Write the structure tokens for this entry.
Amino acid sequence: MWRHSIKPRPDWRDKVVEQGLVFPMTDMPDGTERPYWNESAWYEVTMDEVLHLEEVTEELYAMCKHAAAVMAAGDRFSDAQLGLAPGTLPLVQESLKRDDLSVYARFDLVWNGVEPKMLEINGDTPTGLLESAVIQWNWLEEIFPDADQWNSVHDRLVKWWGDQRAAGRFPGNEAHFFNSGAETTGEEAMTVAYLRDTAAMSGLATYGHEIEDLGWESAQRAFVDWGGRKIRTAFKLYPWEDMLDDQFGRYLLAGTEREPVQWIEPIWKTMLSTKAILPILWELYPDHPNLLPAYFDGPGDLLEWVAKPLHGREGSNIRIHTISGDDHVHDGPYDTDTMVYQEWSPLPSYEGNRAVIGSWIVDGAAAGMMVRESDGPITDYYARFVPHAIGTSPRPDDDTIKQWLTE
Amino acid sequence: MSNRRMRSTGITLGLTALVAASLTGCSSDDDDQPEYAAICVDPQTEQRTDDGNCKDEREYNGAGSGAGFFWFYMATRGGALVPPIGGRFNGGSGTYTIPRTSQGGGTGSPTIKRGGLDTKGGDIGTISRGGFGKSGKGSSGG
């Protein structure tokens, strides 16, 4: 992988906003703002690199599903140990047994050119989707119209909705889409709007609003939307662990619903959105080339390590310990009662930009990548999204693409 | 073996564009749901009747409106009681006047659905809201 500088399109900001990226800038702590969408650079990868990353991504995902079943079995953890509301794990077991529908997940990988290593998986509420699926694609169309990109995210999303619809998995051929009003930059509202578009393209009727307006109808024992319509299938960009802690979570935990809502992502994804999965993976697959050693109770024999809270997001509450000196601590709002210790694997630096690879899973298959870069050692809220292209790879024709999608 | 997508001709993301516009200062109404639902009633007998009897959108203004059948509007967020066909409706749970203001603080006309409610009626029950969300933490995966 290489990083190239390039001149941004003069009207890039208007363009990406129009395409849905209403948060093109990040407000910095000193009051200035800086592009979140950074097209003053692009990353070049080779086709061989892409093929390897795809393979690794799919293997890791299979391992994560295995780990989820182990974690939910009940003999290993209590709900409390995983920071989940009492009664969650039995529901996770049932959800796994039913093989509840799941559409997407995102790995964060550190990749120094040899074997990519899994930093974590965001299996419940991954973001960066619109930037990956739409914005960087449109950038490629305009800047390198003959080049290719590792990016079938959009196609696979539309296909997934269509396939599940054809299989009769959406009662009433409809789905609701909920984002949290707590997030005010528009990032989550846009992510959900985009997903709703992909569902609508498959012919589903879609409804949506903020999850705060969702209602509980006691006579029907059903969740209803703000218009009183019964919710049958619902995509939510809102973490399961919070849902279960919320007031309405008790209806889920107690099984009060007459016809339970089919939530996407499903409740088993709680296992794929906790750092607890990292030590479990290391136990199940010791010395796996794409894993970093990770432990629960302390750093063990690790000389340099990162301590991560179970449910931290965007790099919050992380502590880095290196041999050379002071610990690097990243403050944040998350509960740090339980920490997971993972070997410290510094992100590669491209002219001072530390790049992390986000690798998408859609419908169980590797679907594309996104690169975010930071100035510091931790990929956090201030990270910048940088587009990528596959060098030396001419575009496949339409027939080839169709064939890939069915493989 | 796979990578990249289709979109050789570009795609139209209708809702994405709409929400983007609304979040960047233009207004948009995202009307998925009727804010009001109407049942067809006979004001003389105070009974609900078949939707088909309500042929138009005339408003009932008391005895001067003459006999006949009229739409009776109830806010869908209000958790009103819907009587079965032939049952008496609660005049306090709605209005004969076509609602003109939006419920959700939105601008423009409210969405109204006339007819189509369960003929057997039913207790819409009490809808409680606000039981999810506002945990104060963003939910992005970062």
Observations:
- The beta strands of chain B are 36-42, 47-49, 70-75, 81-82, 112-114, 122-123, 127-129.
- The two ends of chain B are 28 Å apart (CA to CA).
- Residues 36-126 of chain B form one domain.
- The CA atoms of residues 90 and 120 of chain B lie 16 Å apart.
